[in-house]
Amino acid sequence: MKIIISPAKSLEFKKDIPYETYSKPEFLNCAEYLTKELKRLSKEEIVSLMNISYKLSEMNFYRYQSWNKDLNEGTRQAIYAFDGDVYKGLNAYDFNESEIDFAQNNLRILSGLYGVIRPLDLIKPYRLEMGIKLKNNMGDNLYTYWEDILTNYINNDLKDDKEKILLNLASKEYYKVLNRQYIDKDIKVLSPVFKEYKDGNYKIITIYTKKARGLMANYIIKNKINKLEQLKGLSQVKVGNYFI
User: Fold this and answer.
1) Which residues pair with 166 in a beta bridge?
2) Are β-strands 201-203 and 2-5 bridged in parallel, bridged antiparallel, or unpaired?
3) What are phi and psi of 159, to 5 degrees?
4) Which DSSP string corresponds to the chain?
5) CB–CB of 84/66 below 8 Å?
6) How far apart are CA 216 and CA 222, in angstroms?
7) What is the domain count for the chain?
8) Using CB atoms within 10 A of its CB, is residue 13 exposed (0-12), middle (13-18) or buried (19+)?
């Protein structure tokens, strides 16, 4: 089984990390190409492209200008670098060594810049959401750039698994980069929906959904779940304040 999640806009590069083990992103050359395209943009163009403030565009402008493939400089393992609601639920700082190993083998982070990242892959601070319409040699947006690459990656990543399950805990923005038509037919794609019971109805509340995705990934990693039967049991499990 492989779990996919989205990255986070907020980053943490100062907190002490529990493990020094790291790996190298598989599509580092692709990230280098995209940063070359981003380096062409002015601060004002970044504001327009990403719909962010000038202050944020200025910070990211300098990130792009200084970006290179040197993993010995200004990098951090992805699972300790992202700091959004999903990652607060994931709580990777609490993982022991065997749980980190399980996460490394089974958890994948989709990324607008790096394509896909394993938990221990070293990354640099960046902001590049998958939905950004950055023109590139494959088309007018990042979906056209990454679609074939990431669909093939997922197929290959699952080909040796006994139970070929893709657990989609990513947002719609990131999950739709995968071409469902070309995902191998023997791969079962599961996309849980998280709702809170409020005022007599079950409702999707985005901020809680993000936390719940991280909590579910945490539970799977902590319990080393890799079979569909084990996954079905989660419907009876309370994780934090959420029932899955």
Assistant:
1) 2, 189
2) unpaired
3) -65, -30
4) -EEEE---SSB--SS--S----B--TTHHHHHHHHHHHTT--HHHHHHHHT--HHHHHHHHHHHHH--S-TTSS-EEHHHHB-SHHHHHH-GGG--HHHHHHHHHHEEEEETTTEEE-TTBEE------TT----BTTBSSHHHHHHHHHHHHHHHHHTT-SS-EEEE-S-HHHHTTS-GGGS-TTPEEE-----EEETTEEE--HHHHHHHHHHHHHHHHHTT--SHHHHHGGGG-EETTEE-
5) no
6) 10
7) 1
8) middle
> Residue 112: which domain range?
2-13+21-243
**Residue 149 identity (one-letter amino acid):** I
Q: For residue 99, what are its two tokens?
A: 């749980």
Q: Supply the pTM of this predicted model.
A: 0.93
Digit-by-digit pLDDT tens for the chain (244 residues) are 999 999 999 999 999 999 999 999 999 999 999 999 999 999 999 999 999 999 999 999 999 999 999 999 899 999 999 999 999 999 999 999 999 999 999 999 999 999 999 999 999 999 999 999 999 999 999 999 999 999 999 999 999 998 899 999 999 999 999 999 999 999 999 998 887 767 777 777 677 788 889 999 999 999 999 888 887 766 544 544 555 5
Residue owning tokens 């609490």: 94
Contact 100, 118 (CB under 8 A): no
